[in-house]
Specification:
Six copies of one chain form a homohexamer. Chain A has 282 residues and is α/β, with parallel strands linked by helices. Chain A folds into two domains: 3-113 and 267-276, Quinolinate phosphoribosyl transferase, N-terminal domain (Aldehyde Oxidoreductase, domain 3); 150-258, Aldolase class I (TIM Barrel), CATH 3.20.20. Helix content of chain A is 42%, strand content 20%. The first copy, chain A, has helices at residues 3-16, 22-27, 49-59, 88-118, 137-147, 164-169, 174-184, 198-207, 219-229, 246-249, 261-264, and strands at 33-40, 44-45, 64-67, 74-75, 80-87, 125-127, 160-162, 191-195, 211-215, 234-238, 256-258, 271-277. In chain A, strands 6-11-10-9-8-7 form a six-stranded parallel beta sheet. In chain A, strand 8 (191-195), helix 8 (198-207) and strand 9 (211-215) form a beta-alpha-beta unit. Chains in contact: A-B, A-C, A-D, A-E, A-F, B-C, B-D, B-E, B-F, C-D, C-E, C-F, D-E, D-F, E-F. Chains E and F meet through helix 1, helix 2, helix 4, strand 7 and helix 6 of E and helix 1, helix 2, helix 4, strand 7 and helix 6 of F.
């Protein structure tokens, strides 16, 4: 059971508990079989197909789920993207949980696609953040890539990001913070440090880091920062970034822009499951 | 460990893994203590305070979290709603996961408040659905109530909701479906049935149910349905409901209107944690 | 893993631990195959067949378990109800845990059948309670239905049952208790309230509830209560109910009678597994 | 979390699920405190006090449970054996699960006491078996000792018990079975072997074992078996043992008699929780 | 999931976390298949084959692992002991965890073989202890038997071992300690007691035990102890035992010698996985 | 429960199972209290103190464990490094599991110290690998740092390490492998690539990577590689590294040398727990 399986088990448990799907158990005999189609109902970028299929594997390993489209494909309304076959009861019991997952994944991928399109042709890459739906970090990160944006660190374990509080904890010295990080963290994680002023930036340049994050700077400040850094570090811009501002940032010479909104405020997209009782084959 | 604790454990595990918060471990000595304030940054209805506090209990039971506002209270920007004290390292490590939870809960409560306000003064109650963030059903349902809307069933286990596929599974007869439900489900769950036409409605009226759901009907059809039902069942309206349509529905004499958007598309609200290194007391 | 799987995993873990079945491991080579028959040894109503089969799936997915009888069938002594095939070692290792489950399920179903027979021909339905073997709620509830009796609520989550302490907690007012329940609980759960006097009953009638429970009343009181209620609520009788009293209750016009004894004191029925070493097929 | 904690977590989860105790949540404010007494309602031997207390620790660590009687004490009706204090809501939520556990434990202890009394003054010890309520092995074994009877092996891991199928698996030779067991099992577990005929017994005597189980023998056969064994092995008698037969067995010179009924068919004893809303202290 | 599966799940989780194998995911398409051979690189006794295979079952149930050698076989360098087929990505992801397990198991089995060889031809059996790698008790115990040594008790549950602190806890009396043990422990576990002086030994002889452990005695003391015991109990020698001392102990007439080093200090043996991209079959 | 807690729970479960510590339960009353000292018995570097203490917290939260020395301190024989107080039964039950953990951690730290000392004064850092005891990755990595060596990546998630099979999977091109890695992995993990020839090295230099691993090269090859790289990447040397070879490597100008032996073959160090029954305070 990897993390996604654990989340699915939890989601099914909150929907079924020990008492189960009382409606289906009362009305749908175990012998009745069903077919279903997963319909896209609005323009979207597909994501979360693996999670959707796994829900039914948890509910009943004999349900088959076959996707005809893959994560990352743009789909128009009225597209059928998957077909399902199996016990009707299992289709009904898994439906809501599976939809809850794929609708959110598609929402994120679709928003990420919009952001990626906004910087197309520039060197700028749009990054996600750790502001993901709790328990769905992996699903969200996969959806971001499916949409064409890029992943920042996955969690607190695969990248160092030094913020003001970390610096304060070592006595206020940017230099000391960077030195301790270089001394103690595993050899293959990069060190990024957040700065809010050009003065802080100079200290970072003096000591060296892998990436610097320019937090909440306006275009003018960013332009000056890029000039001072002179290619010695990668540059990330962060803080209140909107889709509208992206094209302009693409021209400033920074490497990355991170957007929490990709994962914290994407709405659920409209997909639905059309279920039929299977006709026995002649 | 109840369900919320299991979700929090999962969320922390995806953020920390076995390797942990490498930045904090490298930079923040265990002896440094911190204080923090949780700031509201936009108009919102507070919810998810319990989840926020529990995250820190998972990270470090010695962190204290004290809320001065309660779930359901409307808060203006620049309100401090909680203070935290404990090891600085623990505050930094739990920050993102705790914010991810409360920001979503507040988003749902704030939207629920808008919906509840839209039907104020009518008999109509706005209900949520099972379209909740996977793993966060309880958090979402609590936030809905904090906002002033009402809970439909929690999961598949605490209410019968008969849809077209269930009816098809028993051979297409509304009557047979209702009879089986009455015969097999636990004695204290109510039976609701979905109808899309007035003809189906007549069958339901003939056989009797606790609640009838009018799915995707226009105002005219709803008015006629209410007339035919004549108070013998509770009435729920469902399907593509927007905040704008709510006031008009309030005048039609139905009991409930369910809105998936309350929980599937609420955006995260802006709250942030301001952390300081604690000054030792003189 | 649903709840029954979790219980089975726990039961196997307490029987096997990390050290396992030392006798079988020392004596039975993995290559020896076996066949077994599950024999009924006394008159009983069959239940728990799914749990029995699942135990072997946990021990060894290659064991096949085929039942020729179904839950709810009455079986006479010397009936073979299932055959098993697989590694002899797996049959021996799973035997006791599988029997422990099915023997208890059959005990409950057999007692439930007796209770159901005692009220046959009347409108009275015999209900179970939450007095089930801890960890086996679902198994017990299924066995009750297999026997022909009915399920009260499954747990604390799928029905409201207001008792004296709940009433006291809101200041002693039956009316206030019912109002709060109506205001706060999910829309599809019914509200039942327990009364011990006719005076309390009158308050309930005034405020309205879905079901009223007459606790520990004698036949005379029950008769009077039925008269006052006049069909406006469903009526449950509870408290010290014996099989002997059931037929008389059937004539009083109440809807339900709940019996804790169905699940808290059913004895284990006698079934045994006859195992043979499998002869290779010619 | 040891095994009992895992069972309690499972039992609470089946009673509460993700939705929780909807009645209590709707009616009992978190600020109301309660006191409760645990009353014994019939003659019984107390057992399961630890399990009872732990349930409330799971529900709410701030509830205090204080027992004035200990496992193994005989209690008369109308004895108060424990007092509880804490949030009224927590007392109500944990009540049923806690009672379900202690009522079963007391049932086993009380039956074990009857069996122990029936052999008092003889060398015979009454043993339990592995026919325990699934998930409650430890609780049941503790209750057996509280009643004054003795524990056979706990599970398949702490004792070797060779039955006919094990012998068949090594080719039918009692001698070979015993040799393999002696060669392969951990050094501190004893080896017991079941025999159904005196001929088999002679083979066992020739090869040597720690304990021999005489299965389904009548008094005459048992007497002869005891004579042949002549003190070289411990002797257990098993199969269809009733309380009535125990005194006679006590005179035959065997060491142990095992009774499945101690744990598979003990009924739940009557204990109840009397809860009051706590008066604030003046 | 038995204990080994739980350990494997934990080991994979610490290696993969929620973020997974980032290298393989970026570089190895899911459609590429691979073959691999498991090579022995130094003289060793094979063990841990089941654990090795299970790792891949956790990673991807479609990987096949076929061993041509069995636990307990001595293997020379350059022996191929298993072949694997499946998705290349799955082979790469599981490789390290699977090797970590089998390398340790082989280390233990190889050391156990040396110890067993050192006492060949004597009645002395070399036993392991509970000084095993945490979480790997079963793997270690199986490896000990594969090497030809014997298992002492598995854990604290399947054998009584009375040490000085236990004796002190009952007031210092060896006699009282043995009596309580005989009175309270399950009937099929043996009672062993540790003695450090001949005086203590005499007390044990007087009261009787199943096994006596002579702790840290020299050859002379052991010889005298054997003489006094005179065959009435089994004898275990323990404390600072080296491979060199074993042959001499074999002549002293003791039954067992226990060596913690078998499992606490065996080094990892050299085995490696040679992976190739599978050629498609013509 | 973080990963270490999960491993401890597993280790205690394999030692205790559902049946528990039968010796202690039979002999040591719950009211007897004890004190203990943890003694170092040979020269070692201390590590694993947190794991040691946590074991007792799992067994009994009321046991106090107080260390007077910290991870990383060198300790001579006969040093007392911790004192414990609590129920004697809890001390006895947790003793072996706690020792099994700290003895292994100290073994790793002591070996890491030797390696660190061997390169003191050079720029070379000794790294660990992923060849850690399964389930104990974190404990082992912490012990490596306590000893003064450095951590390579923690798992497959916090660093990219491209090996020959990954290159083969993309068609054999080093360039393509590096490009895909740069395109797909999270922004804060570094990319390391393994080369076995100078020709491969040239390809890596052409495309660029963060770190290059020179696998199984002799000193001459390493020297040439360092020259060609010319400071453009960090350099790791790997493959069959012994303590003896370390000083020489320190002079070659490489940055890191990784040694699997640090964690896969460290032996357990000798520490023991001296337990006494606590004298009541006067």
């Amino acid at each position: 059971m990897d993390h996604l399986d654990r989340l699915i088990a939890l989601a099914l448990d909150e929907d079924l508990g020990a008492a189960g799907d009382v409606t289906t158990r009362a009305l749908v005999p175990d012998t009745v079989r069903g077919r279903a189609e997963l319909w896209v109902k609005e323009d979207l970028v597909l994501a979360g197909t693996d999670a959707f299929a796994r829900v039914f594997r948890h509910v009943d390993p004999e349900v088959t789920v076959t996707f005809s489209r893959r994560d990352g494909e743009a789909c128009a309304p009225r597209t059928v993207v998957a077909t399902l076959e199996g016990r009707l009861a299992s289709l009904l019991t898994g439906e809501r949980t599976a939809l809850n997952l794929i609708q959110r994944a598609c929402g994120i991928a679709t928003l990420a696609r919009k952001a990626a399109d906004a910087v197309a042709g520039t060197r700028l890459k749009v990054l996600d953040t750790r502001k993901t739906p709790p328990g769905l970090r992996g699903l969200a990160k996969d959806a971001v890539r499916a949409g064409g944006a890029w992943n920042h660190r996955f969690g607190l374990f695969d990248g160092v990001l030094i913020k003001d509080n970390h610096i304060a904890a070592v006595g206020g010295s940017v230099r000391e913070a960077l030195r301790r990080a270089k001394a103690h963290v595993p050899r293959l994680v990069k060190i990024e440090i957040e700065v809010t002023t050009l003065k802080q930036l100079d200290e970072v340049i003096a000591e060296g880091a892998d990436v610097v994050m320019l937090d909440n700077m306006d275009d003018e400040q960013i332009r000056e920062a890029v000039r001072r850094i002179g290619g010695r570090m990668q540059i990330e811009v962060s803080g209140g970034i909107t889709l509208e501002r992206l094209p302009r940032l693409g021209e400033l010479g920074v490497d990355f822009v991170s957007m929490g909104a990709l994962t914290h405020s994407a709405r659920a997209m409209d997909l639905s499951l059309e279920i039929d009782i299977a006709r026995p084959r002649a």
